[in-house]
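Section 3.1: Structural characterization of target chains.
Under the original work plan, the team committed to producing a structural model for every single-chain target entering the pipeline before any wet-lab resources were allocated. The record below documents one such target. The sequence was received from the expression subgroup and is listed exactly as submitted; it comprises 222 residues.
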Amino acid sequence: MIEAPLLMINFKTYDQASGKEAVALTKYAAEVSKETKKSIICCVQAADLHACSKNKIPLFGEHVDIEPAGGHTGKVSIKALIENGMTGCLINHSENRIPFTQIMETIALLQEADMVSVVCVKDEKEAKKIAKLTPDIIAIEPPELIGGDISVTTADPAIVKKSVEAVRSVNEGIPVLCGAGVKTGKDVKAAIKLGAMGVLVASGITKAKDQKKAILQLTKGL
């Protein structure tokens, strides 16, 4: 069960969040979660799941493929992810968008395995469409703001509010995260005031000079 408010950290493939650095970052996240009693989830590369699992922090995959077991070289299977520590997975991130039918099949695959599904969307229209598929969480991230210095809560607060309303109009039980440019506790607090259950953050933490301090600062907004 995912507890709100939530800080979800997407490691992507940043050098500062890959391999040994991924293990260190999950350790910081686990320490802050324990110290602050706040809910934190780390989304890590498939190759880092096993090593990061020792840090006792909920781990999500960044992507999972829907192909069944067999001859699918280069794909990422749900069995491998689960057995290496995954408890949920991102779907359709703006840097790895997939067709609607694949989103639908991926949600079903995760539900069957009792894994949490977090579907990323670009706007309120897509949020409403995806809500009909009943994922566990929807994350609104305007692509043009991802990796930038201006938070979505500052640049376009209306899209967060409208996305929350769009999802609730379909299914009030699906919580919404918001991301893109989130860097401070103030950004997090604003997201929650707009109706989000929390935030999805990447470079604001992964590229910080003091990653633990960055995580701690963001949890203050929860």
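The chain has one domain: 6-219.
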